[in-house]
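Name: Nuclease-related domain-containing protein
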Amino acid sequence: MYEKYNNFGQKDNSTISDIAALKMLQEVLFPYGNISDKFRKYNQLCMSKQQLTGDETFQNYPLIKEIPQPKSIFLRFIYIDLVIKSIPDDYFESLKMNRTDLSQLVLSISLYALFLQTYAFSNLKITNSQKKWLLGSEDFYFRLDDLQRVCGKITLKSYNIFLDLFAYNLDMHEYPEPEIKKLYSKKGNLFILSIEEFLDYMLFQIESLYRTSCKDGEFSQYQQRKSLAFENLAYSLLQTEFSDTGHGMYYYPPNKKKIETDIITKTDKELIIFECKSGTIDLRRASTDKEITMKVRNLVKKAYVSLEAVANYIQESNQYYFSNNQQTIIGKSDIDNTLCVHLSMYPIDFIASNIHVLNDEYLGKINKPKITMSFEHLASIIIDLQNNKNSLSNYLRIRQTAILNNSQKSFDVNELDLYNQLMDIDGKSILNEIINTDFLKKVNSNATTITTFRNCRGKEYRPSTYMIQNLDRVLLSSILKNGKNLFNLNKRFLRYFEEYLIVY
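Structure predicted for Nuclease-related domain-containing protein:
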């Protein structure tokens, strides 16, 4: 079931819903030869319950939202750890477990699942020593001793508390609501259907459980700690790309109090303003264009107001001035181009590259459109740019120009696929060609461009998939090297897993 759900080794690219998978798992026995027929049967039953009635109107964004987007496994774990560290100690005392236990359990499930799916569904050879220290249960149920292979500090007490808090017990209930529950228990054993979906679920659920148990003032304090932690994460990344970067800098508009910005970077040609937002956006239940548009607006509006204000300040000043206790950034507004970036912790990949078409206000009044991008995509782009000896400022400049010249046009819904077209990575970008020939100006004002990519063998692929994989290679390599110090993971598991994967 795990193999089918994740499409490992499948040639037909068919998918099965989580509810259909769980219904099949509830059957004690079924003939293996009929498994394909059962997949189709259960999928059809689940899909028939979700079909539109004749009274409902067509909804565009919910359909686009369902297009699968590549997800970084280990960035999601970093987010979960960030959320856990932002929650106060007294909450974990009430749970009778500490914050380290929770991080260790989430990471151990993810790492053991990653090892097991690699072992089961790839051709990588494994040595006897690797097998001894890595392999426990092979049935994709995660027992306590499996997780203790990754982290020996996990106790039966913390395992049971974790199971009670987060797992949906299939022995006591039938099926959870689709797209919500992604961690299950059966006969006291945990299982998941997808690592990425499990981590997305945990990211939302940990915060949701805390929110229901605390007071409003306490949750606001948590949000402030989480916001600062995300800013620090973004600042650390941007320092690898730019030498002149400031965090928490102030500017001084005429006749107004000083105003703080999140991150500012100055290059020879550009001044780049980053507004970092860690506000939660949960679109799992969103089912209409209106609902999605409203939630997106609520997510971006504070960042866009801040970016518009600082862009106005720069344009109206002969010389701009930003400072904090450590540094100052000074420049002339008539020389430096201003780039405004809203950096979101939570991905809204299906719409982020096209927010400019939702409302004219997103373009701004002074030809300084705001670019919304997830941190996940920013990190992937920076890794790719550094490997290709190019710069983020160059890409953001191209991206800004594409929005200004095609303000009513929708581009690829995934920023990483759009990046590959606009930067013309393989030298064969059709999108660049039609932009440069003004072709888009001759078509309907609200046209949408859809891009496909094919490799040298003519096989269709998505650059975004490979870029996310590169990001995960970097993050996994760091976890395997530092997991003992950071999370008290077992040295032998980390060592042999690194050898097995040959992670560089």
